[in-house]
Amino acid sequence: MIDLHTHTFFSDGALVPSEHVRRVEQMGYQAIAVTDHADSSNIDILIPHLIRVARDLNGVNRTQLIVGVELTHVPPPLIGPLAAQSRALGAQLIVVHGETPVEPVLPGTNRAALEADIDLLAHPGFITEEEAFLAAEKGILLELSGRKGHSLTNGHVAKMAQKTGALLAINADAHAPGDFLSVEMAEKVGLGAGLSVEQYHQVRRNMKQLVARLVPIS
Q: Are the C-beta atoms of 107 and 99 separated by less than 8 Å?
């Protein structure tokens, strides 16, 4: 198991990173990304702190902590610059909080995110076919969410991905211990979105391939 979108108490999650990683290690996870909510007010605090704890934990744990960030409710013109700044600060994985149907995300966020240097567009809501083609062209993963509310448009996201060749990921968007996805529940999220069993396993491969490409924390 791999999850590319989770939150600790550095934003609105419940756990410190050490406990966060330990709980999924017990569940058999290979890697987990901490992608706490960020904008220009906190990325220069958040990313260095996560890098420090990743250095401490990754030498002793089986489950690898990936240093990420989720740019959240950032106005579209600022997404590209903040993504570049996050990368310069050492973030391994850059996520943008997409146009979920259950929050007032600014229109144009999906497009601006896909034009930036990011890795994953979280819960992209009613993403357009044109946007999905852009995701496919750039190799940016589109998320099928295990989180209540955000998951409402999983079927639409899966359909757009299948139509355009965009890559998918399945993530918990976990904020608390009960949110982490088991293998069985992750599969239910995928199949519930309309994926076949083989397509679900391809999603897992997509996620493993992305993790393998990430620059290690040194």
A: yes
The sign one gets for the Cα dihedral 154, 160, 163, 169 is negative
The domain containing residue 52 runs over which residues? 2-213
Cα–Cα distance measured from residue 120 to residue 97, given in angstroms and rounded to the nearest whole number: 9
192-212 average pLDDT score: 97
Domain holding 83: CATH number?
Answer: 3.20.20.140
Instruction: For residues 73-93, give the mean pLDDT.
Output: 98
Q: Give the residue among 180, 200, 149 at the shortest CA–CA distance from 27.
A: 180
Instruction: Give the CA dihedral 217, 116, 11, 153, nearest 10 degrees.
Output: -120
Identify the pLDDT of residue 215.
86
Q: For the segment 115-147, what is each residue's pLDDT rounded down to a tens digit?
A: 999 999 999 999 999 999 999 999 999 999 999
Strands (E), the chain: 2-6, 31-34, 37-38, 64-71, 93-97, 120-122, 141-145, 168-171
For residues 29 and 184, what is the distance between their CA atoms, to the nearest angstrom? 13
CA pair distance 191, 203, nearest whole angstrom: 11
With H, G, I as helix, E, B as strand and everything else as coil, classify residue 66.
strand
pLDDT digits (tens, 9 = 90+) for 40-61: 999 999 999 999 999 999 999 9
Indicate the burial class of 214 (C-beta count within 10 angstroms; 0-12, 13-18, 19 or more).
Answer: middle
- Determine, yes or no, domain membership for 218: no
